[in-house]
Fold these 2 entries.
Entry 1:
Amino acid sequence: MHTRRLVLRPPSITDAPFYLALMSDPTYIENIGDRGINNLADAIRYLHEFLAKSGDDNALRVVEERESGRAIGLCGLLRRDFLEYQDLGYAFLPSDTGKGYAREAASAVLETVVSERTCAIVSQSNVRSKKLLEDVGFSFVKMIKFPATGEDVEYWERPRP
């Protein structure tokens, strides 16, 4: 999948250094959660597990700058047992936020949706993420408990245009 500035591609084991940088970042841990990735071996283990369970309906893509080929984030649709619709997920390196990359990647991913709705979950304190969801057509619906942590999170939905 391509946009004007980005390439969205499936992850591979060679992305382990990028996953380590992204998922060990304090902002990622605060807003998404601690995946226990503290070194390169952890990132490789995580990728092996993620790739083993990935499929067409559970597809986070690595987002690269088209010009440089540098990995800058993740974006895609996730299938979660506790949600009725696919969940839009995204995360970007702190050095690459504020440049419109997340909006561009999310818009491209949402163009592929075939179900009547897409959902997203976001922590109450993640103001930037909520702004992005509004910008790409999502609306807040309700608060739900995230099963893995028991945390109250915001549940948003977007109808297919």
Entry 2:
Amino acid sequence: MRQDKLRPLWRQYLSYSDALIYVVDSMDRDRIGVAREEFQAVVEDPLMLNSAILVLANKQDMKGSMKPPEVGQRLGLYDLRNRTSRVVGACALTGEGLHEGLGWLAATLKDAHAWGSAVRF
């Protein structure tokens, strides 16, 4: 599903967010540049500077999909400084990777709130 019509609505939710879950179609090499632009626009927003970032590299069950490290690199995730982030391979059809990714995110947020700090470590 293309998100073109929903993108303008994203910003209104940023001030209420402690985390970003960004799902990427790991098979869509043609649009990874667009995914990067949108990702960078969100993570560079001042309201998101202290938010944890979970990238789900979807469609890992398909032959030829970009692996999680490649997705992170192509999004520019590894260029971000002082950000708590993780890329997890996932498959929406089977649920693979969701427990791992959401478990990491829950633990990250729990630790941050326990210390009474922003998520950034």
